[in-house]
Amino acid sequence: MQDVFHIGGKELTSRLFLGTGKYSTNQMIPKIMEASGSQVVTLAMRRVDTDFAEENILNHIPANCVIMPNTSGARNAREAIRIARLARAAGCGDWVKIEVISDNRYLLPDNYETIKATEVLAADGFQVFPYMSPDLMVAKELAKVGAAAVMPLGAPIGSNRGLKTKELVRILIEEIPLPIIVDAGIGRPSEAADAMEMGAAAVLVNTAVATAREPVIMARAFGLAVQAGRAAFLAGPGAARQYASASSPLTGFLRED
Amino acid sequence: MSFYQETLRYRDFDYDGFFNGITCEDIRSIIYKDRLSELDYLALLSPVAEKHLEEMAQRAHRLTVQHFGRVILLYTPMYLANYCVNKCVYCGFGVQNHIKREKLTTREVEAEAAIIAATGLKHILILTGESRQHSPVSYIRDCVKVLKNYFTSISIEIYPLEEAEYAELIAAGVDGLTLYQEVYDEAVYGQLHLAGPKRDYYWRLEAPERACRAGMRTVNVGALLGLHDWRSEAFFTGLHANYLQNRYTDVEVSISPPRMRPHAGGFPPRVVVSDKNLVQYILAFRLFMPRGGITLSTRESAALRDRLLKLGITKMSAGSCTAVGGRVKGEEPAGQFDISDERDVRAMVSVLYSQGYQPVFKDWQMLE
């Protein structure tokens, strides 16, 4: 089945986005990308060091991958906007993941500041991917101000706790006319498959791969899980039922007419 | 309520009584709690918990990898001046010590900066002694203006400032503060700080909070280990970090566990803090604040630093020099203390990679 993913002005075949933090060496990045089939990689602009070739993360990203710099470290909209512009000036393209976090205890995104940053950057020609706490009204506002997608968290970032916000994400998938990309919290491939099966457009994973004992194998597992979940969604799974359907229905006689 | 008022809750705390009541069973259940209370943290600092260091280490390692990854941020200190008006009995820069007093000109700062920047480092920590006459805020600001051309993150380890002064340095390009209380026990503090503005315990204790209010991005606190009972000092350091993190949620709070090193003046540590004690402190803090940073300096030996790496450390210094202008001047001026791990940045980088850790040179970028 032809299933091209149109997003942010690009056409992709993979619906797995990967992060680059937490690896023991940047040399893992091309291996992870290859094993997973992922075509989009997010990286913290705060870590991009263009002065030294060997430590410059940009030199480790395969040429065919889309770079999605993120605004990690931004405490408010003003800082996020500034970081996004620095990223574009550094040649990272026009995609940007907005990450505004003003609470280092839970690392939950600041939805209000995220909307403000999204509005300014979308008007400035960026393809804006806001990371947010799943909330319908906020997602509607993000869509209104020009976001390219909405990225609700599944659980607090780095927690590997899974799709704890499933019911809220489901509402976004049903109501928001933009791709919904589940970002943060996904700890296992089965949870990524679950999100895709539900209709998420893509998932973004970092900690679960980077901190696995065998990151390359885990990357492959996530790639397969996302494909499986997507295929299941497209196939239209039958509705789950609480009881088995009776083979001799009690009202079958009504259909005889 | 200030942190000082928080400390009063433990003013007459019976540490020995508390420690005597802790059992191995208590420690085992605390290690696997999702969220530790203040007294859970103190229990992990108890003598009983020494029997559970391996279990604590496994958990601390997993938490650190989960929250920070296999990554260590590298930085180096640069001493701008060693003029000091304080009489602190344990410090090599103390006014009582007859050492050569120096202060770098901005041109010399630039020369040091160029040498450091050539090693690839992007995070710098600048230090001075306490002398508002010789190293006023305006001097530090002028140095920051020069350093901005070489580094993407500048932290200060200087005398405590007013909130407006912190704001002034932040506006100039400073994003981090390191300020050690040295001793949290108020009575002992008084015995060790004999003269000078540093005698003011409260002014120093509340300085990190003033920096948070002024908008500092990272704040690092600590007690100088060896001056007083390490268990209670480690406890108060953790309480201080936790207090700041809870009130200033957008600040990245971290601690340092510095142990006393030899220096001019020759004050011997009052309390011996063993490697085992240091390990216990690092592990207990990691379990108490899973997202808190832990900074390890070159005060510790290369061999020990390599082993502590996996226990919760997030930031390490490299290629350090504790003397003013030590990198550009041929002679060897007196440092604040003797460093122990003398490996240069290249050597640290290869050690980190060999241990399965990525050295990070840049983790922030000034936005203005």
Query: Which residues of chain A sit in consecutive blocks of at least 5 with pLDDT less than 50?
Result: none
> What is the terminal-to-terminal distance of chain B?
33 Å
| Mean pLDDT rating of chain A | 90
The greatest interface between two protein chains, and residues involved on each side, is:
A-B, 31 and 30 residues
Q: In CATH, what is the class of chain A?
A: Alpha Beta
The proportion of residues in beta strands of chain B is 15-25%
Instruction: Provide the CATH topology of chain A.
Output: TIM Barrel
Helical percentage of chain B: 25-40%
Low-confidence stretches of chain B: none
In spatial order, strands of the major sheet of chain A run 5-4-3-10-9
Largest sheet of chain B: 8 strands, parallel, barrel
Which H/E pattern describes the elements of chain A? Answer: EEEHEEHEHEHEHEHEHH
CATH A-level architecture of chain A: Alpha-Beta Barrel
The fourth-level CATH homologous superfamily of chain A is: Aldolase class I
Pathway (chain A): Cofactor biosynthesis; thiamine diphosphate biosynthesis
Catalytic activity (chain A): [ThiS sulfur-carrier protein]-C-terminal-Gly-aminoethanethioate + 2-iminoacetate + 1-deoxy-D-xylulose 5-phosphate = [ThiS sulfur-carrier protein]-C-terminal Gly-Gly + 2-[(2R,5Z)-2-carboxy-4-methylthiazol-5(2H)-ylidene]ethyl phosphate + 2 H2O + H(+)
Protein name (chain A): Thiazole synthase
Subcellular location (chain A): Cytoplasm
